[in-house]
């Protein structure tokens, strides 16, 4: 008799719980796969448009890519509330740094991407089929994160191209995706780049996704993302020896804004947390 009750309780409580878990995991993966399929489809459509309009690899293709990607937010129920767009209105090149939470960031990036702006990306992206092709056509700069020396020499070339071709460069200084609800320590490449090209840095902060997107909890629903483009950081007077301080300053400023936009109380962390 007792065993019968155990069996009944297991069926009534455990089985529905298991089914809910399976269905939310299934829904999460279904949405992520849909996102990837949409990226592949849109890049397959956008590539011929880029080739016909601009002939090959050029930053002008970013305008076409931007138009395609901007339609995706409606599919996933995302809304962007953007503040500080006027801070992008500067003459000439600059380095834009922003936080990087997920593959979904491409939508937030394209929502506010200024003209003549290319991104720095890990070289593995080049091999992602039609997505790789579209990033190549848009002029994305690939770096090998495992080879600091190679990455540095590519960045030095980028500094020259920025001034020669009037390019803005978008860098994710955390160097990888991070959905932890905080910022990772910053790498220094973006700051060296700004110094080498003698251009200002514009920080951009996106609020935390954790309330609507969380891989660990298999959560992916619609939501509002607050975006703030901060005033430029002038690098005149900054020397090579000041790079760590500059990186630190930018990190703490962005982290403060990140907590504010995410509606979380700010918890200070020790100085130099932005260095390796
Ligand atoms: C319709 C279509 C749909 C599809 C839609 C597609 C849309 C098309 C959008 C694509 C969009 C892509 C978006 C991808 C997004 C990523 O792929 S994110 C990952 C790749 N990006 C990055 O990693 C950028 C950030 N990383 C860096 O800048 C790193 O500093 C570097 C350059 C990789 C070097 O890495 P590291 O060695 O691990 O890091 P770090 O501690 O900074 O440097 C080590 C030392 O070298 C020094 N150093 C670093 N850089 C330099 C330098 N340039 N010069 C001199 N010294 C330097 C540092 O000062 C440090 O020395 P110490 O101060 O310790 O003495
Ligand atoms: C023939 C090969 C076919 C491969 C097909 C691959 C299909 C890929 C499909 C969709 C991917 C859409 C992603 C859009 C661009 C995402 C850029 C991105 O967010 O890269 C991650 C990078 O920031 C940091 O990487 P890690 O967190 O260090 O890792």
From TrEMBL:
InterPro entries in UniProt: AGP_acyltrans (IPR004552), Plipid/glycerol_acylTrfase (IPR002123)
Catalysed reaction equations from the record: pentadecanoyl-CoA + 1-(9Z-octadecenoyl)-sn-glycero-3-phosphate = 1-(9Z)-octadecenoyl-2-pentadecanoyl-sn-glycero-3-phosphate + CoA; (11Z)-octadecenoyl-CoA + 1-(9Z-octadecenoyl)-sn-glycero-3-phosphate = 1-(9Z)-octadecenoyl-2-(11Z)-octadecenoyl-sn-glycero-3-phosphate + CoA; 1-(9Z,12Z,15Z)-octadecatrienoyl-sn-glycero-3-phosphate + (9Z)-octadecenoyl-CoA = 1-(9Z,12Z,15Z)-octadecatrienoyl-2-(9Z)-octadecenoyl-sn-glycero-3-phosphate + CoA; 1-(9Z-octadecenoyl)-sn-glycero-3-phosphate + (9Z,12Z)-octadecadienoyl-CoA = 1-(9Z)-octadecenoyl-2-(9Z,12Z)-octadecadienoyl-sn-glycero-3-phosphate + CoA
Transmembrane segments: 7-26, 32-52, 125-143
Enzyme category, top tier: transferase
Location of the Phospholipid/glycerol acyltransferase domain: 94-209
Listed GO CC annotations: endoplasmic reticulum; membrane
Pfam families, per database record: Acyltransferase (PF01553)
Keywords: Acyltransferase, Lipid biosynthesis, Lipid metabolism, Membrane, Phospholipid biosynthesis, Phospholipid metabolism, Transferase, Transmembrane, Transmembrane helix
GO molecular function terms noted in the UniProt entry: 1-acylglycerol-3-phosphate O-acyltransferase activity
EC number, as in UniProt: 2.3.1.51
Pathways per UniProt: Phospholipid metabolism; CDP-diacylglycerol biosynthesis; CDP-diacylglycerol from sn-glycerol 3-phosphate: step 2/3
Domain of life: Eukaryota
BP terms from Gene Ontology: phosphatidic acid biosynthetic process
Family of this protein: Belongs to the 1-acyl-sn-glycerol-3-phosphate acyltransferase family.
Written domain comment of the UniProt record: The HXXXXD motif is essential for acyltransferase activity and may constitute the binding site for the phosphate moiety of the glycerol-3-phosphate.
Chain's role: Converts 1-acyl-sn-glycerol-3-phosphate (lysophosphatidic acid or LPA) into 1,2-diacyl-sn-glycerol-3-phosphate (phosphatidic acid or PA) by incorporating an acyl moiety at the sn-2 position of the glycerol backbone.
NCBIfam families hit by this protein: AGP_acyltrn
Protein name, UniProt field: 1-acyl-sn-glycerol-3-phosphate acyltransferase
Lineage of the species this protein comes from: Eukaryota, Metazoa, Chordata, Craniata, Vertebrata
């Amino acid at each position: 008799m007792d065993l019968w009750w155990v069996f009944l309780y297991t069926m009534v409580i455990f089985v529905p719980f298991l089914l809910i878990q399976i269905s939310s995991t299934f829904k999460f993966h279904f949405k992520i796969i849909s996102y990837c399929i949409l990226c592949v489809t849109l890049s397959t459509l956008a590539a011929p448009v880029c080739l016909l309009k601009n002939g090959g690899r050029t930053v002008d293709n970013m305008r076409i890519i931007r138009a395609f990607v901007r339609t995706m937010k409606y599919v996933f129920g995302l809304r962007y509330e953007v503040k500080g767009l006027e801070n992008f209105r500067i003459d000439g090149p600059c380095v834009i740094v922003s936080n990087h939470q997920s593959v979904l960031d491409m939508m937030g990036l394209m929502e506010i991407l200024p003209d003549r702006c290319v991104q720095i990306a890990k070289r593995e992206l080049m091999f992602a089929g039609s997505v790789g092709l579209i990033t190549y056509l848009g002029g994305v700069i690939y770096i090998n994160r495992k080879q600091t020396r190679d990455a540095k020499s590519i960045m030095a070339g980028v500094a020259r191209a920025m001034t020669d071709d009037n390019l803005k460069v978008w860098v994710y200084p955390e160097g990888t995706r991070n959905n932890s609800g905080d910022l990772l320590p910053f790498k220094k490449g973006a700051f060296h780049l700004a110094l080498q090209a003698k251009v200002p840095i514009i920080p951009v902060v996106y609020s935390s996704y954790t309330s609507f997107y969380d891989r660990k909890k298999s959560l992916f629903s619609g939501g509002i993302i607050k975006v703030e483009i901060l005033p430029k950081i002038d690098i005149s007077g900054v020397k090579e020896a000041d790079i760590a301080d500059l990186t630190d300053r930018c990190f703490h400023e962005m982290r403060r804004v990140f907590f504010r936009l995410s509606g979380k109380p700010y918890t200070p962390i020790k100085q130099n947390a932005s260095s390796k």
